Amino acid sequence: MAGLESVDWLTSTTAMELTELPKSLVVIGGGYVGMEQAQLFAHLGARVSVVGRLAPHAEPELAQGLREVFADDGITVVEEHATAVATGIGPHGQDVVVSTASGAQVRGARLLVATGRFARTDGLDLAAAAVDVDERGFVVVDESQRTSNPRIYAAGDVSGAPQYVYVAAAGGRAAALNALADDGRATPARVDYTGLPAVVFTRPQLASAGLTEDEALARGYVCDCRVLGLSDVPRALVQHDTRGAVKLVVDATTGKVLGVHALADGAGEIMLAATYAIKAGMTVDDLADTWAPYLTMAESLRIVAGLFRNQMPTSCCA
Ligand SMILES: Cc1cc2nc3c(=O)[nH]c(=O)nc-3n(C[C@H](O)[C@H](O)[C@H](O)COP(=O)(O)OP(=O)(O)OC[C@H]3O[C@@H](n4cnc5c(N)ncnc54)[C@H](O)[C@@H]3O)c2cc1C
Hints:
This protein is of the alpha/beta class. The longest helix is centred in the middle third of the chain and has 16 residues, at 165-180. The model has no long low-confidence stretch (mean pLDDT 95). The chain has helices at residues 12-15, 32-44, 60-72, 165-180, 213-218, 234-238, 267-279, 284-288, 299-306; strands at residues 24-28, 47-51, 76-78, 86-92, 95-100, 105-108, 110-113, 197-200, 205-210, 223-229, 245-251, 257-264. Bound molecules: flavin-adenine dinucleotide. The site of flavin-adenine dinucleotide has 11 residues, from helix 4.
């Protein structure tokens, strides 16, 4: 990013080491780290601007809901259609100014760069060990976590896997089992990504399990989706916060649940049940006909499944 070296910028780690709250903060990057830290600083009282698309991989209905939450929190979001929205950075007195692709200028006392993390494989001379990396520097592994050198395994962020701590742990387990197995091991251990959950710890949380509608279509599914607004979820009503929604992505041919997505208080907790449902191959009818405890946010799973039968959202009891 042109001009980055001319300012004293923060990472997600150094931002957490600040001992004083900056008056204002510009965050470059609308991914999960950028969103979580932008909202944290806004809630602490800083004037926050985010430069970059908010939740670019989330379901569009939910990303839109989060935009509205950020607006309520007083966070300015500068979103443009270019992939690299921030085009230039420079000092302006005591402040930092970020220029955007469309010519806008965003100013703040501090700058946080949250544009994603890359593998630091440059200095490892992996070529000498015949370990291939991809064009972005991530170590290439097969399904058994084995690199191009059959005696070397890799796991976690460096292997280009989804960047979650539980994925790193599962990949590490598979790598260790395979590395220590007898040569004749018939079925190597592998990570099964079916129903993989993800949580953005904003308030409310943005969480998902399994495939988005776009991912399902890209994989060739004929899919059917329903979106339930939180104003039809009793738990959200009693909490007086109906901002958000739950979306169900279903294989139209088999009725099987492919993905569950939510913007809601406790959305991350809903995803455990969602992951079980996807992994077990449950259909939307199974979900609609399975018990859901009343006055929990997780009841939204049963209610949204009911929308495939009847357009009226129906809680068990309200
Ligand atoms: C701000 C933030 C919030 C996050 N929140 C969540 C969350 O809520 N939930 C979640 O699941 N995930 C979260 N993640 C992602 C998660 O932290 C990573 O996916 C996970 O840590 C990956 O584990 P890893 O072991 O592959 O890599 P790391 O945890 O990065 O560990 C790699 C280690 O290797 C060391 N190292 C690097 N180069 C060398 C070298 N040349 N020689 C020796 N050692 C080296 C590093 O110092 C580091 O200790 C978050 C990430 C960030 C940045």
